[in-house]
Design goal:
12 strands
């Protein structure tokens, strides 16, 4: 099958597949009042997920990231991992999680085929973690990260939503954490989501501030790999881990875009920051629809824009900020 690409010459090897909108944390920047479903959402079934993954693999997708909400809240999360890992053409299965189930399941998920894992951890301080996330299980999350490292995942990453006057001053603590741990810490700039301008203006800080601190301390920017997510990565000879910066407001952020998103209700989003999705579910009910599904993917990619519209305040469906870190 022909590789998915757009009219700007970008190829798409990376699918972010949401399997639920539900989450059990109450992060200030995301779901401060907790998860409140809109009616009774009908999330993709396992068979529908299989058809999505199979179609994308046939048009060049090599990496699948299983996201949410909190994806591990699905009872069939293990089945989703196994399905993706056994799809011909897929060589990397990743997930983004708040980590509450990781300590107990790191080995099992690895054995099923999960190779990369991102864990949301917005502070190394227990009290500030509770304040930001609305949850007091920081130690359980830290235990999960240690379990993942011991298990031997290809890559373990920590996602930190950068918040002025909260965790933006904690770079020294995060650096110390990765001095002897092979962990990537990704600082994600806060974006103006449905929480509105007040929260954004109060807590937004540019990742350039962190970048300058890193460069002044001898960190150097790494070359970008073809399947990498949106982060700029930095390394230092004295540290086992790396620092990544995800700065969606930066110039040329979209130039190397290589990923698409399918929502938990079966809509294709050509950009993570678009509100309107393209319906796929009408072609997910039967295996015979695969050729039509693939044709629709190619058709829609021709409509993908050159860049997002974050600077105009349009953040689309991206409410779970911690999940954008690739």
């Amino acid at each position: 099958m022909t590789q998915l690409n757009d009219r700007f010459g970008r190829e798409f090897h990376y699918l972010r597949l949401s399997i639920t909108d539900a989450c059990n944390f109450k992060c200030q920047y995301c779901l401060p009042d907790g998860y409140r479903p809109d009616g009774k959402p009908r999330f993709l079934t396992l068979d529908e997920i299989r058809r999505v993954v199979t179609a994308f693999a046939q048009v060049g997708t090599r990496k699948i990231r299983i996201t949410g909400g909190e994806p591990t809240m699905r009872k069939d999360f293990n089945d989703v991992i196994e399905l993706a890992a056994n799809t011909p053409g897929v060589n990397t299965v990743a997930t983004t999680t708040n980590g509450y189930r990781l300590a107990a399941n790191a080995q099992r998920w690895f054995d099923l085929g999960l190779s990369q894992i991102n864990v949301s951890l917005d502070s190394m301080d227990e009290g500030l973690f509770r304040q930001i996330t609305g949850d007091g299980r920081q130690q359980l999350v830290l235990d999960g990260i240690e379990a993942a490292l011991e298990t031997g995942y290809r890559r373990v990453k920590i996602n930190v939503v950068l918040l002025k006057d909260l965790n933006a001053q904690q770079l020294p603590q995060f650096l110390e954490y990765i001095r002897h741990r092979r962990v990537d810490i990704r600082f994600i700039e806060l974006m103006e989501t449905g929480l509105g301008q007040d929260y954004f203006q109060k807590h937004h800080i540019s990742g350039q501030v962190i970048k300058q601190q890193l460069l002044s301390q001898g960190w150097t920017e790494d070359p970008r790999g073809p399947d990498d997510g949106p982060a700029l990565n930095f390394s230092h000879p004295d540290f086992a881990g790396r620092i990544g910066l995800i700065m969606p407001y930066a110039k040329d952020f979209c130039a190397t875009c290589n990923r698409l998103r399918v929502s938990s209700i079966g809509k294709l989003h050509l950009c993570l920051f678009t509100e309107c999705g393209i319906e796929l579910r009408d072609l997910l009910g039967h295996d015979d629809h695969q050729p039509e599904l693939i044709a629709r993917l190619h058709e829609q990619l021709r409509l993908k824009g050159a860049t997002h519209q974050l600077h105009e305040g349009l953040t689309g469906v991206t409410q779970h900020l911690a999940s954008i870190g690739g």
